Amino acid sequence: MSAWFRYKYPHLTVGALASSAVINAIEDYWQYDDQLYTSTSRSGAQCPTDIRAINSFIEEALLKSDESAAEMKKSFNCDSLTNDEFLSYIGDIYAGFIQYGQRAALCDMIKKGGKDIVSKVDTVRQWALKNQDADDYSIASLANTTYDPNKSSRQWTYQTCTEFGWFQVASKYPDRAMRSLNVSLELSRDICRQVFGYWAVPNTDLENVRFGGIQQKSFNIVFTNGGEDPWQWASLLKTDNPKLHAFPVGCNGCAHCVDLYTPQSSDAFVLKYARWKTTKLIASWIRGESPISEPFTENTSVNK
Q1: Bridge partners, residue 245, by sequence
Q2: Which residues pair with 225 in a beta bridge?
Q3: How many H-runs (helices) and E-runs (strands) does the chain carry?
Q4: CA nearest 93: which of 138, 149, 134?
Q5: pTM: predicted TM-score of the whole model, two decimal places
Q6: What percent of the chain has pLDDT over 70?
Q7: Does the pLDDT at position 223 exceed 80?
Q8: DSSP string computed for 101-144
Q9: How far is CA 41 from CA 37, 57, 92, 127, in A?
Q10: Contact, 61 vs 76, CB < 8 A?
């Protein structure tokens, strides 16, 4: 939002920090799921392999029979979901961990859950029962227009269905998919039609014209992105524009909005550098000066 605000209203601002800013509207956003594979692989090949095996076990239960499908969904307290809704629910379990820098915790949890597939599925189930709301994945719930200050899934879904897309579908590379291949672009479009009507189709080309996409002709914006964040592929990762600045933060566990977290002495050098450089740039914009060029070391003060 800060990048778009800066782009639309440069006369009201001196600059913007766009942390993990998704500025490129993409309907078929398979890159999100593909990044989940890349990120979990940093914990070793076994982690994505286990996740894919869990998905296969669950999907086989759904396909086996109506009774088997009902039993599997009930065990996750997802009785109200259709099979496809349930598969979306399962995929987002892993996504939530990785998006917010908890990839190592996810992989450790699955690893410690047991060696056999039944134990691994149960480990994921027990976490989901405590932390994930099935209602957020139900078309009936999304179509409910009753205001609830504690829920925002309908609002987010409206934006994706009518403007930006960003449908988190399975990777286009089947051997890297971290969610069921049934979680497809057509499924996402069908959800939009059922929730809002047949008119609800995102025109991503139009939105990128309106807001500039990754081609926006703007200035004084810093784009920061965590190297494990699945949203980074809808942001600006590099630029030839000397007045736009892109800082990918490729460190262990560095994901969505990592640069906005409270700084720690143990933070990776590249993260410290991104914060320092951002601070220097914003200070120069406020003062109307060129950024001061100086070396950065582990002992450099970010607040200097």
Answers
A1: 222
A2: 248
A3: 12, 5
A4: 134
A5: 0.93
A6: 95
A7: yes
A8: T-HHHHHHHHHHT-SSHHHHHHHHHHHHHHH--GGGG-HHHHT-
A9: 6, 20, 17, 21
A10: no
User: Does residue 289 surpass a pLDDT of 80?
Assistant: no
Average pLDDT of the residues in 198-213: 95
Residue 251 above 60 pLDDT? yes
Q: Distance (Å, rounded) from C-alpha 55 to C-alpha 178?
A: 8
pLDDT digits (tens, 9 = 90+) for 118-140: 999 999 999 999 999 999 999 99
Kindly report each contact of residues 166-170 with a partner whose C-beta sits within 8 Å and lies 24 or more positions away, as own/partner.
166/22, 166/25, 166/26, 166/27, 166/29, 166/32, 166/234, 167/27, 167/28, 167/29, 168/29, 168/32, 168/33, 168/91, 168/92, 168/95, 168/230, 169/28, 169/29, 169/30, 169/33, 170/30, 170/33, 170/91
Q: Residue 85 contacts by C-beta under 8 Å, 6 or more apart in sequence? A: 78, 137, 138, 139
Q: Which pLDDT value is given to residue 295?
A: 55
Quick count: other Cβ atoms within 10 Å of Cβ 108? 13
Q: How far is CA 285 from the centre of its chain?
A: 30
Give the type of residue at 155.
Q
Asked if 186 and 218 touch (Cβ cutoff 8 Å), the reply is no
Give, as one character, the DSSP assignment of residue 17: E
E-assigned strand segments in 131-255: 165-167, 221-226, 244-249
